[in-house]
Hints:
Blueprint lengths: L9 E3 L5 E3 L8 E4 L7 E4 L3 E2 L2 E7 L18 E8 L2 E2 H7 L13 E3 L4 E2 H4 L3 E2 L19 E2 L1 E8 L7 E7 L7 H9 L10 E3 L14 H4 L7 E3 L2 E3 L13 E12 L20 E4 L21 E11 L1
Parallel strand pairs: 2-9, 15-19
Antiparallel strand pairs: 1-19, 3-4, 5-8, 6-7, 6-15, 7-10, 11-12, 13-14, 13-18, 16-17, 18-20
Pfam family, one: FAA_hydrolase
Enzyme class: hydrolase
InterPro entries: Fumarylacetoacetase, Fumarylacetoacetase-like_C, Fumarylacetoacetase_C_sf
Amino acid sequence: MPNWTHLPVGYHGRASSVVVSGTPLHRPKGQRKPEDGPPTYGPCRLMDFELETAFFVGKGNDLGDSINVNETADHIFGMVLMNDWSARDIQKWEYVPLGPFLGKNFGTTISPWIVTMEAMEQFIVPNMEMKNPILDYLTMNKDYNFDLNLAVSIKGENQSEYNQVGTSNFKYMYWTVAQQLAHHTVNGCNSQPGDLYGSGTISGPEQGEYGSMLELSWKGTRTVKVGDEERKFIKGTVQDSHEEILPIKCFMSGTYRAESNAYKSPDDGYIPPRVQAYSYTPAQSAESGTNIDDGYVAPRNDSQTEGYLQEKF
């Protein structure tokens, strides 16, 4: 995409199916288009996770106003981990030309804890270097990127423990959360307390640092080792019983690193999402065509969560 180095590419989502970590979800059904033949209807066969974070708005802006990129600290309350579960086969058929719809809206998992931006300040690192000159409204006068180590593990229905499939770091994000919020409001769109903004898939430069199975398997051209199994996506086994629910668990963790290795716990708090959810497509995923989230960030140095995907056939 020629635009992703000039603006934070994104799309609007929905908040009705944004759920807290541990909430059961079912494998979605929808239209799938085989290489040859007409569309078919059935359960998703290319289920995926997306390793993301998200931030909550604390103080909003009025309709018609915009938020200055260097004043967003007054508007962003805190961050969570997020998994925007993705049905890749449904998404592939439907997303042209208007973007994801049923491939995304069946469930997004977020953490039950929010880490405030004040607590995140000690982990600030330099912003990513821009590949092209950017417009003034996106130009920052300070660093607002974060050193947050991330990992993804999967436990299948026949596995007794989680198996790590990838790692990443939030510092690989091309656009900062400040630039994302400034861009979303530059046209006068209002934001309100509790609005949720997803970061987009967080992927690093190396093969093992990709934030989704789509990227890890390189669009299904190679397998990913998950314990004693190999797979390309989050698979499920069809059993004889149509009533059986088969749990597939996706586990994501984040660790904040600082030279002092110290971390002050913020006040506990949870802001439920409002009617607006917004997710960004990161530059790192542009070539592979992905865009968006599981998670949990607890108010301590090491934080982790589980998001549950359940299948019913």
